[in-house]
């Protein structure tokens, strides 16, 4: 919201609460507004109290007193072992226990069985709720009689005293005394039945049960030993543990040997893979081929020549013949390139055979070790299983032995207690009771009547119920009755408040409020200029916003001499600014200074009987009220109206149903909500406020019309 000179209209969101807390006047207004509901609730509560006061009867209270002695006979102080008794130092507990026995159902039922419950409480046989409901069924009458008897019974104890005060309230004094005496007698009998409990038979039964339990435990111990096949469990566990340890040691040794064998096998395989299959034996190399006699022949020929040369002359033909042969052999030897022959001999490697034999031996031993490990694992698993079984058997035997020891101890204790209980039961038969009747019930002389209390309760209940009814009615009410409620709900300031009047806005009070309202609007400024265009919007189309806007326009025109135009987008102008019939002939000429011919094309305007005041004619049918008119044209038209008139008052339908009103909301200088007291619903007002804010409009505040004063004027003087 934009600032005004001297006034600032706080925004709805995040603003502080204008109205503050409820005042005494607001509370009284709400009380008088909801007076019918408050009076009805108060009368109902007071009628209930008065009816109870009329129907109540005088009640007579019979009293009796009992003395409770705290000694060995008290249940909390008994000891069955024959040892010195330990008395209960808290006597109040014993006394409270006695009171619970007195109020028990069994005691009350004995009294009612001795006395006719229908005669004692006749209401159980009569129709209920003034005959609206039938009487109780015969099977339910005893239950209802017990509840009624218990509601009239009072059992009280005094702190620091062992005396129990018992009282019973009934309409008949003789019945009250007799019923209370029978109650005390029934209590003593019931108490005797409770505390006269034979204990020796119970202890004997428990002793027999414990003996059977001992035999059962012994049988379980023997069965476990037979299943485990042990005589001495500790010795068997030690032997089994030693066997497991021996197997573990052997397994470690075999595992070590297996690892060593594996390493030897791997090494032998590596070495065997690296050894050659055969090894070199010898090598022989020669260039003499088999069946080659050239050299032998040459040698023979040379020997033969040497022999013949020694015998014959050099010219001997035989020598020449030998020389030709030698030369031929030599030529033959020179013409042939004989290759060189080499012979290499290899034999099988003896190391390979040795390693193969050794590797085979190691693999056989490795397989044997694997089988041995498997067997040792089986033996180890069997030994561990045996140890686990022995441990389980030991745990069971230990538990059974502890149970046997405990049961034996309890058995001995119960044997002693059974004998002591038998002795005590014999002595208890001649022992006096620890409850003494100090005072037996006698018929009371005077009675009590609760009629004044019921009347007072009815009065208090009327006040409380009436107040609750007023609060509930106020909480459920959704309409506004005082200006403070819309201020708190809408978080908007109150601009004006008009009381309900038969004269409408023509009454003196309304005129004074209009004068104040008009002055307030004239004091506001928007960006340094006054509010020229003001729109009035209500939650629904009615006569309040039209009449208020026209009355305000009349105040602007008459009281402040401002040229004012009323644009009614809801319909024709109302009664305040009604057109004269017939209109003055010179009215159009007299008002020509307002520039009527320039705007008549888009918005028909006619003068009124009030000077300086004009009204639109069928504005909702003009382009200004047409939703199809462009926004720029509508804004230009409003600017033209600002230049033609001092004040323009727009009466618009609710923006929740009209697009034209939603458009104009953001174009006017300020918007004013018109709320009708006791008619405008709060959700509708909140919805209207949110729609206007969402449309970009500035909310100046609200005006409350039709307000009624429910408080008498004599009371208003003091508020």
- Full CATH superfamily name of one domain: P-loop containing nucleotide triphosphate hydrolases
| Rg, nearest Å | 65 Å
The name of the CATH topology of one domain is: Rossmann fold
- Which descriptor suits the 3D outline? flat
Q: N-to-C terminal Cα separation, in Å? A: 34 Å
Low-confidence stretches: 1-18, 72-89, 575-601
- Bin the strand percentage: 5-15%
Helix fraction by DSSP (H/I, runs of at least 4) = 40-55%
Q: Can you count the beta strands? A: 17
Number of helices: 22
What would CATH call the class of one domain?
A: Alpha Beta
Strand order of the largest sheet: 8-17-16-11-15-12-14-13
- How would you characterize the largest beta sheet? 8 strands, mixed
Specify the structural class.
alpha/beta
Give the oligomeric state: single chain
The CATH architecture name of one domain reads 3-Layer(aba) Sandwich
Overall residue-averaged pLDDT value: 76
What is this entry, summarized?
This protein has 719 residues and is of the alpha/beta class.
Please describe what this structure looks like.
The chain has helices at 24-33, 35-55, 91-102, 105-114, 117-120, 138-152, 173-195, 200-228, 233-274, 294-309, 317-335, 350-428, 451-476, 484-490, 508-523, 544-559, 587-590, 596-599, 631-644, 659-665, 682-694, 713-716; strands at 59-68, 153-157, 163-170, 278-286, 341-348, 435-439, 447-448, 494-499, 525-526, 529-530, 533-538, 564-568, 605-607, 613-616, 647-652, 670-676, 699-707. Among the domains are: 57-197; 199-276 and 353-432, Orthogonal Bundle (Helix Hairpins), CATH 1.10.287; 505-583 and 593-675 and 684-698, P-loop containing nucleotide triphosphate hydrolases (Rossmann fold, 3-Layer(aba) Sandwich), CATH 3.40.50. It contains 22 helices and 17 strands. The chain has 719 residues and is α/β, with parallel strands linked by helices. The strands form 4 sheets. The chain has an 8-stranded mixed β-sheet, sandwiched between helices. Strands 1, 2, 3, 6 and 7 form a 5-stranded antiparallel β-sheet that branches. Strands 4-5 form a two-stranded antiparallel sheet. The two termini are 34 Å apart.
